[in-house]
Design goal:
About 35% of the residues lie in helices and about 20% in strands. It has about 270 residues and is of the alpha/beta class. A hairpin with a 4-residue loop joins strand 2 and strand 3. The longest helix is centred in the middle third of the chain and has 20 residues.
């Protein structure tokens, strides 16, 4: 298999790339193009109900979350976007099928609502015709989980569960989401002290950039030793699926790309 240099950028505004993305089946989103020229995608209905994105600062995780979420929204999904910085996903505020939450109280309440929605969907017994796929996008997830734990402690009463119900909702979505068409895109290295040791196993697609050898060993052990190239180039990542790692240039969508595409799909000018 011939290995080539990755393109410097893979912009959604390129007409041929946009056409390729729009031709994908429902539940599938393009992550990017690998060094052997293959399209690397995530299929939520196959082996990958959830996606883990883990990068160091400047590694492109926000862009990755925006690109994947937007593609599923274009296919008719709804989304809950948790944005603890409050400014990383401003595009989400403009879209009627997206719930955007930034402050920790709002995130807590939104996840309490997610718990109810997950139960409602599971009670349907698999009859999900007409029920839109729900994407739960969690930016800065480690920080968000720690803040949720502290927030719960501020008003938890004696008979309340020790674990924040918001964190429990995320755990339940990871375990039961496939059956309910609820999918988590998680930005960060899962904190085993909060989510438990098994949480990592729920992510069949792992996207890594600017990673340490320890991060690779913990999140992609089946893919062998950590590669020497850890992507100083913007937009580059390794996508690990079924034990195989693909060096990939990720699709780049700007806020304007996403809003224009989702509010006026006939407009070819992003």
């Amino acid at each position: 298999m011939t290995k080539t240099a990755l393109p410097k950028m893979l912009s959604f505004s390129a007409p041929d790339l946009r056409e390729q993305i729009e031709a994908l089946p429902e539940g599938t989103a393009l992550i990017g193009i690998s060094t052997d020229g293959r399209a690397i995608a995530v299929d939520l209905d196959a082996e990958t109900p959830h996606v883990l994105v883990c990068t160091a600062s400047g590694g492109g995780s926000t862009t990755m979350l925006r690109s994947l979420t937007a593609q599923f929204l274009h296919q008719g999904a709804h989304a809950l976007v948790l944005d603890p910085k409050r400014i990383s996903h401003l595009w989400a505020r403009a879209l009627p099928t997206v719930t955007h939450r930034g402050n920790i109280a709002g995130i807590h309440d939104a996840l309490a609502g997610l718990a109810d929605e997950l139960k409602r969907r599971l009670d349907l017994g698999g009859d999900l015709d007409g029920v839109p796929r729900l994407i739960v996008t969690i930016d800065e997830a480690n920080t968000t989980l720690r803040q949720l734990a502290r927030y719960w402690e501020t008003f938890r009463e004696k008979d309340d569960p020790k674990t924040s119900p918001a964190i429990t909702a995320i755990e339940d979505a990871l375990w039961a989401g496939r059956a309910a068409h609820v999918h988590v895109i998680f930005d960060g290295r899962p904190d085993t002290t909060v989510l438990g040791l098994e949480a990592r196993e729920q992510f069949a697609t792992v996207i890594l950039a600017r990673f340490t050898a320890d991060t690779w060993r913990r999140l992609a052990p089946a893919a062998g030793p950590a590669p020497k190239q850890r992507h100083p180039q913007r937009g580059c990542c390794h996508v690990v699926q079924q034990g195989d790692a693909h060096e990939t240039q990720a699709v780049r969508m700007t806020d304007a790309d996403v809003v224009n595409w989702l509010t006026d799909p006939t407009d070819n000018q992003s």
